[in-house]
């Protein structure tokens, strides 16, 4: 079932090419829904056990996949947001066949990233998710996309090639027979070599996360993407950096991560505050959201690098649900653009004519700035609570970013949705048809898990404990 | 007493079959149309591949070890045959447009393939040299065959620089012989151990001259300068041949000489390391600034030489296997990409990268295929280029060349930029009229492209299909026949 869940979207994406034009949306929606359904079945069954076969025996590369704990939570969120993206793209984008096919292809890459338990397999999926993202940007992007594209590709691939070297190094210096995570953990690398390899591995993860100073690709990537926000939804799901560090980085490089902890936590806190500060000055909703996401990822990084149980659980929680509400916010920006023809934050007065859109967006923003009762709060609070026990001052700096978040979010929201409607502005329609679902479902999820977090925590907690206990506790 | 050499036909068979094709093209050219000859040659290439398959694991030798049909030779030979067949298929469609559609083209091509196979099958330096000269001389003619100033200029350049390369190589062979008293790879390898200091000095000198000579042939910096001009000036089907088959053969020769005969000789590895680093930097950096797609592919060939050369720095058991895998993949992806250029270009000068804008909306299948090739060249999974690069990195890394691996990773980033730019341009909407040759897609070219794309996809997802054959280290540790 797990293999079906991973590869079903890809099959659907290929099938879409052969489907007659008028059925494409239905087929894509069906495939996305089926994938989510499979994910939920796996969840009900208590997760998918490790499955491992030799892939390239001569190289020691295995095809090892498992979906449990954190990876299952993230895979479910991915499947859920892909479905939402498909729902929205089908209506919003003209002739959406190619876009839907790319969304599904990317979904396979992302699910694969979360399922992989072999470093080379992880790398393969890691890069595979990149190709559809690049294609989306190339096909549907705005006029300056070439720069954004090259920047994005150069940054991410620069990181991943260093990671590839680290992967080779981990196996070689440790002397493990295969690249499967279980084997690599049994043959650890020690000493200075471990630190160097961890740095190589971090290079890729810090780009993906993204973490200052490797974040420069992110705002351009989002700004130049299609207005609808569909590619951005997939793009936000792309933040697998935190997950990668948690699943592979900590078990493989325990000493190095302890050694580098203060530096990395400092960088993470700086990223969170710096991004929030810049977000305050943005006048483009997409860039604003990009920097907001960056700021949240700084908190995720803070949690993971702190090696503290509470903080790491919070980071994983935040990582999972940040995708939901930030993704939905990107889609709401797309809806705004569709109505007023701009993604500028000084549009003014949209609320008066599109109350539901304004209300939903506001609720999602509340989730994003960690208002209690919504999913963002649980994550951010746990991160700050946990990392405070490790590095109080750094946590204090990072904590300032939550205040800044309220400032930038509410300012931009106010100038767009309230204030006066400019004279001669077009009449703005309210939510229609599936748009209710597109914003409503993520909001419902954010609300549900904000109030009742135990189903998600039950998944995340044991996995975090497992990883950290192997590290020797706190 | 006169001793009769041990001539066995069996290990010679793959070469003789190809040679028969060359002779047939020369003789039958008077009575048969060129297409018929091309088809005959294609069939003969197939037969040659079958005969290689029959020789698998036989370890047959002839001429007292001067010619060895061991598994290494067969693995490299198959890459050569694949590249040659793809060249012939493309030439079926484009030779007429390129004004090289006459039997001599086929004859020269097949002679050249004969030479390349001789290199791959060589067991001593003289056999290798003969193969190299047969290959080079026919390639000079191929590059010049088109009736145009550009082709003549590039052919002359190729000839002059190639001749210098050969001269250096021969001098190197002479020195190696002087130092070790043997021309046979096995003999050289045996004698490199217990040499007097003077002889070691001569051996190092010989090895370095050999390295320089080979560096000319495979286009290692700083001996690469002929490559962009020749690949751009020659007809595209010839560039395809030069950048795949000829390069495979030259690397086969390098593997035989440096991985086998001179494996324990001092000196050459550190020099090769520097040449590789220079190639990686120069090839990748120069490719960044090429406005012409065909010229960019030429620099990309230089850049890939750098990655390929990294495998020679690994221990033979790992490096040889990596090289064999990478060469086949490189052949498939480069040949498919250049086949698309050959089909779509308006003139033999190729097309500019900006002309590719919107190709997806005019030739969707070709655009997707080209994107796959470029992604593979850039080393993105799930395409086979990824495993090729991976194996090359691994071979160098595990033999202690860590900084070179890091440098290669950095150079790859530049490579990604110049491969992705055209790949992404193809998918951008475009309203200007098409700039391609209007009758571009023909059956044989399409088949070649499909072969390449399917090949790199399948080998990328299931690398074991090919790597499984090559992975046995025993194949590569007996390169010198020990």
As residue ranges, the low-confidence spans of chain A are none
How many separate helices of chain B?
20
Largest sheet of chain A: 2 strands, antiparallel
What is the chain-wise order of helices and strands of chain A?
A: HHEEHHHHHHHHHHHHHHHHHHHH
How does the helix and strand content of chain B classify structurally?
mainly alpha
Task: Please name the defining characteristics of this protein.
heterodimer, A: 474 residues, mainly alpha, two-stranded antiparallel ribbon, 22 helices, 75% helix, B: 482 residues, two-stranded antiparallel sheet, 20 helices, 2 strands, NADH_UbQ_OxRdtase (chain B), translocase (chain B), EC 7.1.1.- (chain B), quinone binding (chain B), transport (chain B)
Task: State the gist of this model.
Chain B: Pfam families: Proton_antipo_M. Chain A has 474 residues and is mainly alpha-helical. Chain A has 22 helices and two strands.
Outline the structure in words.
The complex is a heterodimer of chains A (474) and B (482). Chain A has one domain. With 474 residues, chain A is mainly alpha-helical. Chain A contains 22 helices and two strands. The model of chain A has no long low-confidence stretch (mean pLDDT 84). Chain A is 75% helix and 3% strand. In chain A, strands 1-2 form a two-stranded antiparallel ribbon. In chain A, helix 2 packs antiparallel against helix 3, helix 3 runs antiparallel to helix 11 and helix 15 packs antiparallel against helix 16. With 482 residues, chain B is mostly helical. Chain B has one domain. Chain B is 74% helix and 1% strand. Chain B has 20 helices and two strands. In chain B, a hairpin with a 4-residue loop joins strand 1 and strand 2. In chain B, helix 10 runs antiparallel to helix 13 and helix 11 runs antiparallel to helix 12. The longest helix of chain B has 32 residues. Chain B starts with 12 loop residues before the first helix and ends in a 5-residue tail after the last helix. Chains A and B meet through helix 5, helix 6 and helix 7 of A and helix 16, helix 17 and helix 19 of B.
């Amino acid at each position: 079932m797990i293999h079906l869940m991973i590869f079903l979207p890809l099959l659907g994406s290929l099938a879409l090419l052969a489907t007659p034009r008028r059925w494409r949306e239905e087929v894509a929606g069906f495939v996305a829904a089926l994938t989510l359904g499979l994910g939920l079945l796996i969840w009900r069954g208590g997760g998918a056990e490790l499955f491992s076969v030799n892939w390239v025996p001569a190289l020691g590369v295995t095809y090892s996949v498992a979906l449990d704990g954190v990876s299952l939570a993230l895979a479910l969120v991915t499947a859920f947001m892909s479905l939402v993206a498909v729902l929205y793209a089908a209506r919003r984008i003209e002739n959406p066949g190619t876009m839907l096919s790319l969304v599904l292809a990317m979904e396979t890459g992302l699910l694969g990233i979360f399922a992989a338990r072999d470093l080379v397999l992880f790398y393969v999926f890691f890069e595979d998710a990149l190709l559809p993202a690049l294609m989306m940007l190339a096909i549907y992007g705005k006029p300056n996309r070439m720069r954004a594209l090259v920047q994005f590709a150069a940054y991410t691939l620069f990181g991943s090639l260093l990671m590839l070297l680290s992967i080779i190094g981990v196996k070689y210096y440790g002397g493990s027979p295969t690249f499967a995570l279980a084997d690599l953990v049994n043959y650890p690398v020690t000493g200075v070599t471990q630190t160097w390899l961890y740095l190589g591995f971090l290079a890729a993860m810090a780009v993906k996360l993204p973490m200052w100073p490797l974040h420069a690709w992110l705002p351009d990537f989002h700004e130049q993407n299609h207005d609808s926000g569909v590619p951005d939804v997939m793009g936000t799901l792309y933040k697998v950096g935190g997950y990668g560090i948690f699943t592979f980085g900590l078990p493989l490089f325990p000493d190095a991560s302890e050694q580098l902890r203060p530096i990395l936590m400092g960088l993470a806190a700086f990223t969170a505050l710096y991004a929030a500060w810049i977000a305050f000055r943005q006048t483009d909703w997409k860039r604003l959201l990009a920097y907001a996401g960056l700021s949240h990822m700084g908190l995720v990084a803070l949690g993971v690098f702190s090696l503290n149980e509470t903080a790491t659980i919070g980071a994983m929680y935040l990582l999972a649900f940040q995708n939901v509400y930030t993704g939905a916010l990107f889609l709401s920006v797309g809806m705004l653009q569709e109505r007023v023809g701009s993604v500028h934050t000084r549009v003014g007065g949209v609320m008066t004519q599109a109350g539901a859109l304004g209300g939903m967006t506001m609720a999602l923003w509340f989730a994003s700035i960690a208002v209690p009762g919504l999913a963002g709060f649980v994550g951010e609070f746990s991160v700050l609570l946990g990392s405070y026990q490790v590095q109080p001052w750094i946590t204090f700096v990072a904590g300032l970013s939550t205040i800044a978040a309220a400032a930038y979010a509410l300012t931009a929201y106010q100038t767009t949705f309230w204030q006066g409607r400019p004279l001669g502005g077009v009449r703005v329609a309210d939510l229609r048809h599936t748009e209710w679902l597109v914003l409503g479902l993520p909001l419902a999820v954010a609300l549900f898990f904000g109030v009742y977090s135990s189903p998600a925590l039950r998944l995340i907690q044991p996995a975090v404990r497992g990883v950290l206990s192997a590290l020797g506790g706190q | 007493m006169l001793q009769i050499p041990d001539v066995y036909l069996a290990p010679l068979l793959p070469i003789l079959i190809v040679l028969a094709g060359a002779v047939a093209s020369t003789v039958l050219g008077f009575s048969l149309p060129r297409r018929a000859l091309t088809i005959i040659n294609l069939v003969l290439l197939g037969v040659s591949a079958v005969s290689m398959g029959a020789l698998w694991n036989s370890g047959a030798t002839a001429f007292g070890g001067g010619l060895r049909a061991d598994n290494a030779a067969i693995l490299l030979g198959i890459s050569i045959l694949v590249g040659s067949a793809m060249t012939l298929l493309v030439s079926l469609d484009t030779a007429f447009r390129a004004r090289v559609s006459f039997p001599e083209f086929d004859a020269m091509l097949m002679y050249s393939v004969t030479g390349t196979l001789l290199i791959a099958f060589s067991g001593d330096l003289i056999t290798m040299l003969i193969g190299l000269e047969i290959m080079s001389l026919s390639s000079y003619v191929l590059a010049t065959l088109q009736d145009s100033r550009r082709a003549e200029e590039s052919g002359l350049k190729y000839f002059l620089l190639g001749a210098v390369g050969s001269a250096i190589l021969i001098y190197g062979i002479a020195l190696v012989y002087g130092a070790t008293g043997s021309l046979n790879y096995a003999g050289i390898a045996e004698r490199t151990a217990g040499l007097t200091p003077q002889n070691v000095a001569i051996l190092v000198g010989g090895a370095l001259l050999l390295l320089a000579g080979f560096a000319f042939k495979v286009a290692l910096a700083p001996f690469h300068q002929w490559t962009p001009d020749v690949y751009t000036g020659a007809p595209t089907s010839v560039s395809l041949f030069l950048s795949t088959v000829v390069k495979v053969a030259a690397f086969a020769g390098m593997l035989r000489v440096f991985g086998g005969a001179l494996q324990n000789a001092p000196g050459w590895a550190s020099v090769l390391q520097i040449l590789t680093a220079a190639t990686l930097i120069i090839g990748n950096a120069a490719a960044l600034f090429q406005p012409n797609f065909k010229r960019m592919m030429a620099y990309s060939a230089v850049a890939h030489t750098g990655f390929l050369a990294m495998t020679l720095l690994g221990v033979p058991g790992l490096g040889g296997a990596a090289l064999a895998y990478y060469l086949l993949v490189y052949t498939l992806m480069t040949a498919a990409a250049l086949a698309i250029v050959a089909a779509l270009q308006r003139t033999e000068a190729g097309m500019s990268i900006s002309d590719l804008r919107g190709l997806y909306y005019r030739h969707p299948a070709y655009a997707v295929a080209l994107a796959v090739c470029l992604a593979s060249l850039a080393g993105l999974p799930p395409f086979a280029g990824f495993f090729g690069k991976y194996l090359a990195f691994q071979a160098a890394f595990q033999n202690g060349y860590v900084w070179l691996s890091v440098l290669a990773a950095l150079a790859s980033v530049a490579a990604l930029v110049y491969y992705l730019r055209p790949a992404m341009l193809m998918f951008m909407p475009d309203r200007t009229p098409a700039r391609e040759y209007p009758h571009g897609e023909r059956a044989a070219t399409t088949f070649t492209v499909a072969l390449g794309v399917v090949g790199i996809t399948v080998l990328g997802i299931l690398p074991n299909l090919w790597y499984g054959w090559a992975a046995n280290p025993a194949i590569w540790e007996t390169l010198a026949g020990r």
